[in-house]
Amino acid sequence: MNMNMKIPEENIHEVFDKLVEGEEIVKKQLNDILLRHSRIDSKLQILSKLLPNAVEIHNRTDKFQNMVTHTRELAENVTERVQQLNLARNRVCEYQNRVHNIPDLQSCSQAVIMALRNEDYEQAAAHVHRYLLMDKKLLEQNSEDNAGDTTSVTSSLATLQRAILELKTIVTKKFDEAVKLENLTAIERFFKIFPLLGMHIDGLNKFCQYLCTKLQETAQKNLKIALDVKNTDPRASIIYADTMTLLFEGIARIIEVHQPIIETYYGPGRLLMTVTMLQKECDRQIKKIVTEFMKHRNMSKRMQSINDYLRRQTPDKIDPKDLDLLLGELTVMHSRAELYIRFIRRRVINDLDISTTSNIQRKDLLNEFEMIINNSELAHSMQELLGAYLALERYFLEESVNKAIGMDVLDQDQQTSSMVDDVFFIVQKCIRRAISTWSIDGVCAVVNMTCGILEGEFASRLKGRLRQGYPAGYLDLAQAYNALQTTIQQGRLQTSDTELARLMFLAYLNNTDVSIEYVETLSKSLSVEIDSTFPDMPDKDRGKIDSCLAGLKGVISALHAVIDFGLEQLRVSAIKPRITPWIDAFLSADHHINEDELLRYETDEPFVQTLLTNLEGLLQTFKGGLTSSNYDALIGILTTEVTARLEKVVFKSSFNRAGGLILDKEIRSLASYLATATSWSIRDKFSRLMQIATVLSIERVEELTDYCGADAIAWKLTPSEVRRIATLRTDLRPEDIKRLKL
């Protein structure tokens, strides 16, 4: 601020205040600096102590840097000398090879000539193989560098080239002659010579052609035997499956015997070529076998007959029993083909694993193998067989199930009719036959067929019979049985005969319950069997199987719906009409009881004793005729009806406290009886009635607050219901009930 500048008098105080404020700020800053002075001094003292060490560290760092620089220079010098030594070593090795190659070349040329003269073809091939392993460029360079040896080297090379051509011609000719003479020893002898001459592909081709020829001869012979088999032969029903099996076993035997020879003389990784050639011959023979099978088993005619029948174009149909053996043969043929494919796939993979091919090459070769298998005639034939099997299996399953349902019989000692065991025997047979094909698609198809039949026709038949209802009236099962047996066998059911109708209703209700158990057991066993049959199942196939097995849960749901329907029919016709008058008898009793009557009720209890006697008679009527599960369900329905009806009649009655106590005792007796009659828990069904009895047996209105207040647990009665029930007590004042806070 300019001191000479004149300040107006009115601003002097304002300027003075600013100067004072600025002075205070400066003082505060000075105080902060003084406070930090001690910390700064201590840090400076520490730095002064470290300064000598820092100088020492700097000096040592310079020395270390110099050492590293020197070491780097030495390493570079050593590396350069090592490179020079390595170059010199390579040149020495090359010179040694050049020195040794010339005498080796001359020795090979002379030895080859001698071996050919003596017809020692193995020895000649060994010398040729030794020559083929030599570096040709190095031999030519030797001849150029050693002018004196040029003539001998050139002569030896020419001799060996001529010997190679001659030896290849001889070995090929000798091998062909051995094949014509079927001299297995000579065939294997010359087969081992081919790779020594660099003729790997030619050798494998010729040997595989020989093997295919022998395979063809054996397959045609076996097929001719199959065609000549008489129907009386024990194996006549599966003769074509046997013929196919012999073909696969022959190929497997060829691979088992000759794979070690191929790996030893031709090296690993060559089996794929052998399998490819054998597979081509396998395809030709499979086509012949399947063609003869289709012809002699009248497959086209049978399929046409089935299709015509299903389209309602003809009333004639094939008996399912006539297809049983044919279906068995189809499954055996398909499973043998699947087993063969698994065998050769495993062999090829193992062979490629021990080969020197890279991962990429190995993957390409495996893809090539899979394409060969998937596009083969064998794969097409398997699809044809599987398609025929599934079409016949569907017809067999549907017709057999319908036949089992149509021939339904009820035995006197059984709770179910014959159709349940018969139907599920057929179902299990068909599904397990599908598993024996070793085809995931086949298993899924048959399981889906089964689910469709059980959820459709089978469940509909059960529900259709239950829809006829349960005739009212008292039962006499023993008297009805003989008449029922006669009418079922005659294929007619007289709905006017109530006893017969009751027996059939209970039997079909039991049929449904047992069917649920069978389906649950079937689902569990199938899961285990499928896992053991297909242990290395891909995730894709696992998804298919899980989806199909989930269909069995749909069947269980459908059957549960049928049971619920049947129990509802039983409730409407057999339970409710009888329960109603028994419970309504409660209305005729006086519930205003004095002390003397209360003592008498302690020992007598006329209403509940009569009710229990009636319930016992009703339950005994059904106990022997229903399965345990259905019987428990019946008691559950009975309990629901009893509690609901009793609750209604209670609301139509009036009580004093003694009457309420009697009601509480009666309800507990009733609950105890029904609880002992079933394995299910029924306490929750009596909870409302017991709470009603509690309200009716209180001494004072104020007690209700403890029972059904805001802190009450598991109290099912609403406050309005509690007040309504309390009004049934004639000895409680209405104004006290109205003042009650719940």
Question: How would you describe this structure to a colleague?
Answer:
This protein is mainly alpha-helical. Helix 1 crosses helix 4 and helix 10 packs antiparallel against helix 12. About 4% of the residues have low confidence.
Compact summary:
Helices cover about 80% and strands about 0% of the residues. The protein is built from 25 helices and no strands. The protein is flat, with a radius of gyration of 50 Å.
Note the main attributes of this structure:
single chain, about 750 residues, mainly alpha, 25 helices, about 80% helix, about 0% strand
Write the layout of secondary structure elements.
Blueprint: H1 12-117, H2 121-132, H3 136-145, H4 150-181, H5 184-193, H6 200-228, H7 239-266, H8 271-296, H9 299-310, H10 324-353, H11 359-374, H12 377-406, H13 418-435, H14 440-467, H15 477-489, H16 498-533, H17 539-584, H18 595-603, H19 606-623, H20 628-651, H21 657-676, H22 687-696, H23 704-708, H24 719-726, H25 734-739
Helix pairs in contact: 1-2, 1-4, 2-4, 3-4, 4-5, 5-6, 6-7, 6-8, 7-8, 7-10, 8-12, 10-11, 10-12, 12-13, 12-14, 13-14, 13-16, 14-16, 14-17, 15-16, 16-17, 17-19, 17-20, 21-22
Rg value: 50 Å
Secondary-structure-derived class: mainly alpha
What series of H and E elements makes up the topology? HHHHHHHHHHHHHHHHHHHHHHHHH
How many helical stretches?
25
Summarize the main sheet. none
Query: How large a portion of the residues is in β-strands, by DSSP E?
Result: under 5%
* Gross geometry: flat
Helical content (DSSP H or I, runs of 4+): over 70%
List how many beta strands DSSP finds.
0
Mean pLDDT: 83
End-to-end separation in angstroms reads 86 Å
Poorly predicted runs of 5 or more residues: 143-148, 474-496
